[in-house]
Amino acid sequence: MRENPVLINPIKRAYLALESWFNMSFGTEWNPMYHLGTLTFFLFWIILVTGLYLFGIFHGSIDGAYDSVEYITHEQWYIAGVMRSLHRYASDAAIITILLHLFKEFAAGRYHGFRWFSWVSGLPILWLVVTLGITGYWLVWDELAQYVAIGSARLLDSLPIFSSSMTSNFLQGQMTDRFFILIEFLHLLGQPLILFFLLWLHVKRLSNVDINPPRGLAIGTLLALLVLSFIKPAVSHGPADLSSMPTVLQLDWFYLNAYPLMDYWSEGKTWILATLITVILMLLPWIPPKKDGPAAVVDLAHCNGCELCFDDCPFEAISVQARTDGAKYEKEVVVDPALCASCGICMGSCPSSNPFRQANEELKTGIDLPDLPVDKVRTMTKEAVLAMTGSANILMVGCDHGFNVNQLDNNETKGVKLRCSGMIPPTLVEYALKNGADGVMVVGCRHNDCFYRFGNLWVEKRFSGERKPILRGRADRRRIKVFGGAETDKTSIEKELKVFRNELLVINEQIAPSDQVDGKELSDV
Amino acid sequence: MFDFKNKLFRYFLQAVNYSIFMWLIWFLSTSPSYRQLADDEAVLTISFAHAGEIREPCHKRTQKELMKLSPNMRAPMDCTRERSPIIIEVLLDGAPMYTHTAEAPGLFKDSGVDIYHSVKVSAGRHNLAIKMDDSVLKEGFNHSFNQDIDINPAQILLIGFEFGQGFVIK
Predict the structure, then answer these.
(1) Residue A215: pLDDT band with limits 50, 70, 90
(2) Which residues partner with A172 through β-bridges?
């Protein structure tokens, strides 16, 4: 069935539009939408470094805190003041990147099935970062800190946990350094340590984890925050005074938005709303239930333990162990079904997934998808190639999560949809060309935005010879094109296809008819 | 038509994006400002910790009862642990402002109660009346406070309870 672009999820459409805008502005390598996680890490580094500097000057007591922050802001504005502003603005920026990261993964549908762990483990990070910001505002001990402290205490008092009132700690003459030191300990050590653990947990099921954004993007972000720190330095409110209530506050809405809600609503309703949002987000991976395909299966009879699939798996689902079948090879691979995304990238990386092998029998490979085995992929490829009757026939190999290649099917263009473009063994491209295709166009997800993280990247590297299994030298590169595209990129893909076809027509004209490949003859290969 | 591949134009677009990013942080880190109290408002806070009276009167053990106990347990008085709830009623200018009954917390209901209540009131002169009952053994409210109070704008007027003094303005 052809996919109607109008029916594409409007949230995903909004995300793709945003992604296109950033691709136009930054290019695919620096697109911030592709580096939201690493950008957040980078912002955490800024927060950590500036925080350590501020800690050296900050006086952690009720009487000394405000004055020390005033010193930081006004007396040593050129270093400490900038550090304070950077500390605050990087924290605000982290909320932006985290929320965009959440939006992106949701819009792109990357939270179902095997991804439940990353999704669920990411939510406590958001809440922890918010509470980290709250305790940070507390330490300044100005009027805003007073508002935050009393509001937080009211929130905690509304829970049936504590026997004594926490709010009564913030009455005139009641506040002690002990409570202040507790908050200082939480902000400086307790919360950052938990955050570090949660971040480790969040990426635990991913392989090839990168925590650094591209240098250009990092420099741009740092410069933007630095400029902001100079033109609008972070300042405090008046000093906290527990005998009076500040009337007007300049709230940081990134972190403190729950407090006005609590004033207008109630503590209980605010808790209910926060709990409801958390529970709904936590349950999203199972609403509606979505089943991944069956996990990849290893066939030791065709596996020599080369570890290429282990290297390529984006989700740490493959491990290597000593050979168990008595074969002459040293190692074998094992798939953990609980971690397997059924993306098929491992099948594309297996050297045994060579369609020229076992030509007249069922093609077996070392690691395969039970519901879309390499033999079926070979058959689909062959059928698509033989069905084309044009003068420059192009086989388009697409994936389930990018542009639907079957939308462009006609007598000189046929699409084969795989789960991920990373499923393509380079030899499959050669096989298509040998069987009569004039060109092969691989249309996976947009560059750097593979649904399975690395599928399109691995294909590009295999074709360029940077990553095994490589496309052999004898394959005519002029007849192969890789172009990423999302559901909404039909126009640009059609344009690219047209250009490619014209190039193929020129190449075909340069080759004498007797040299041309006879599809029928070679279909027996 | 613009050439999107043009490097300069791409830098310009990046500058636009960074400007939006900076503006978003600039604005939301302090704006819009939030008013939590009107200019002519103040806050009245009643806060204290107080343990209610023992729920039942103590019983003086007879010699016979004492002899039944092991030597180290022979305390002359036998008192139950459970304490009375605290019932408090606050009236501001004759109108009910706060009514609350707090059971003594703890497994044996023998702990003190923390009362905290804070409300916004208009600044100026008010009549404040507080009644508290902390004993089920005595009829009615056994502690009371009635006084005209002056509150300045934005002031937090704190009313506490001190043993032996009753309700006090702090």
Answers:
(1) very high
(2) none
Do A397 and A497 belong together in one domain?
yes
Residue ranges of alpha helices (H) inside A284-393 are: 308-312, 345-349, 374-386
Q: Which of A286, A314, A339 is the last residue of a domain?
A: A286
What is the percentage of chain A residues whose pLDDT exceeds 70? Answer: 96
Query: pLDDT value at position A49?
Result: 97
- Of A262, A286, A310, the residue that ends a domain is A286
The overall average pLDDT reported for chain A is 92
Contacts of A249 in chain B (CB under 8 A): 33-36
Contacts of A106 (CB under 8 A, 6+ apart): A11, A284
Residue B47 to residue A165, Cβ atoms within 8 A = yes
Give the whole-angstrom CA distance, residue A104 versus residue A448. 14
- The amino acid present at B128, given as its one-letter code, is L
In the predicted structure, residue B2 carries a pLDDT above the cut 80: no
**pLDDT exceeds 60 at position A224:** yes
- Domain for residue A111, yes or no? yes
Q: Is the pLDDT of residue A289 over 80?
A: no
What gap in Å lies between CA A211 and CA A202, rounded to an integer? Answer: 12
A458 close to A344: Cβ distance less than 8 angstroms = no
The full length of chain B comes to 170
In whole angstroms, what is the distance from residue A182 CA to residue A191 CA?
12
Inter-chain contacts counted by CB atoms under 8 A, chains A and B: 122
Domain span including residue A214:
11-286
| pLDDT attached to residue A512 | 55
Cα–Cα distance between A8 and A12 in angstroms, integer? Answer: 7
Sort out which chain A residues have CB atoms less than 8 A from B43's CB and list them: 245
A15-44 tens-digit pLDDT = 999 999 999 999 999 999 999 999 999 999
CB neighbour burial string for A318-335, b if at least 16 within 10 angstroms, e if fewer: beeeeeeeeeeeeebbeb
3-state secondary structure B24-76: HHHHHCCCCCEECCCCCEEEEEEEEEECCCECCCCEECCHHHHHHCCHHHCCC
User: Residues A329, A390: one domain?
Assistant: yes
Band (pLDDT 50/70/90 cuts) for residue A8 is: low
Residues in B touching A172 (Cβ below 8 Å): 156, 158, 170
Span A320-336, pLDDT tens digits: 999 999 999 999 999 99
Question: Same domain, yes or no, for A385 and A517?
Answer: yes
Which residues in chain B are closer than 8 Å to A224, comparing Cβ atoms?
18, 21-22
Query: Hey, which residues does A263 pair with through a beta bridge?
Result: none
Nearest C-alpha in A relative to B119? A263
Do residues A36 and A101 touch, judged by C-beta distance below 8 A?
A: yes
As a whole-number percent, the residues of chain A with pLDDT over 90 amount to 86
Distance from CA of B78 to the nearest CA of A (A): 27
Q: Produce one character per residue of A147-165: b if its CB has 16 or more CB atoms within 10 Å, e if not.
A: bbbbbbbbbebbeeeeeeb
Taking an 8 Å cut-off on Cβ atoms, the answer to whether B10 and A26 are in contact is yes
**Number of independent structural domains in chain A:** 2
To probe the interface with A, which of B41, B86, B156 has the most A CB atoms within 10 Å? B156
Q: Tell me, what's the pLDDT at B27? A: 97
Assess whether A303 and A281 both reside in one domain: no
Over the stretch A85-112, which tens digit does the pLDDT of each residue have? 999 999 999 999 999 999 999 999 999 8
Dihedral pair phi/psi, residue A282, rounded to 5°: -65, -35
Q: How many helices (H) and strands (E) does chain A have?
A: 18, 9
| Chain B residues inside the 8 Å CB shell of A22 | 17
